Amino acid sequence: MAFIGRQSGQLGNYIRCNTITPDGSTTTFALTNVVDSAAVAPGSENNVICSVSGVIQAPGSAFSINNTSIVFSAAPTSTDVVDFILVLGQTIDIGTPSDNTVTMAKINGTIPNSKLDTIANSKLANSSITINGAAVALGGSTTITTIARPTITTSSALIAPSTNASFTLAGTNFVSVPIVELISSTGAITRASAVTFNNATSLTVTTNLAAGSYFVRVENNDGGAVRSTSAILAVSAAPNWSTSAGSLGTIAAGATQSFTLLAYDDDSTAVSSYSLQSGSLPGGFSLTGDSSIGTISGTESGSSATTTYSFTIRATDNESQTTDRAFTITVSHGASGGGQFN
Hints:
By secondary structure, the chain is mainly beta. Helices cover 4% and strands 41% of the residues. The chain has one helix at residues 113-124; strands at 14-16, 28-30, 48-52, 55-56, 63-66, 69-72, 82-88, 128-131, 134-137, 151-152, 157-159, 165-172, 179-184, 189-191, 194-199, 202-207, 212-219, 225-227, 233-235, 240-241, 246-252, 256-261, 263-264, 273-279, 285-289, 294-299, 307-316, 322-332.
């Protein structure tokens, strides 16, 4: 029945046992609860205080406990009086815990390795856990397969803007056929329109992007993925010449003159350099550049008749893209002689 206060003599609290009567020969006596005469199992003599004729008996030497009985090492005499037997808590069977009722907070201290082995062998065999969305069996000779993630070794690539263009991407652990994404500085993501799997270390990627710089991300079909640590893909047009092709002008023989060349990158900045790609300049002339304009200058020398010099100048931008343009310079000589009289 329900009550207020501590429940005494039932579930492991102090229990006073019924009086026993020595007869001088009996050493073993049953222990029963003074409340309801139910058998009492102290579990150990160290849980029991026993007084015989006013003398507290030493547990272990004067008496021991055998299940629900007290066993005296020597039978008390018939004139002895067992004053009391007090059990300091009765051992009880807590039964089997219900599923999911034992939490980590209840598992305190260190579990010996032998116990862990027993738990693993009996409880984890034929069980499974989920890794990356896939069930992995535990116990026995289970093997967990690791994913070989791809890498990107290409440090730079270049394609033209606003047109379907391809570039080769080098790396390792590519699996046919991966997803390739191009990520702009704003975070916008464009998936490559086509990816050709050349082998585990090479892909050919086709895409159509606006001018700019892009990170590259590769994801294999098994989920392994990598993103370049820097923007390795430059989308840029070749230099655009501002100086028209053809004749730069005509100079008189022996004259000093200069001609200016100008080309721009696709971001409207001047190209980085100019170089003589083929042909020849008039004698005494040379090409110089200061990262913004090219200059052909000098004092003409070496010609003996009107001569047109043809040559090709190459403009190179910061992405090492080039555009060539053909020019001419004419060196003129005026009429000489005209007649001689003897």
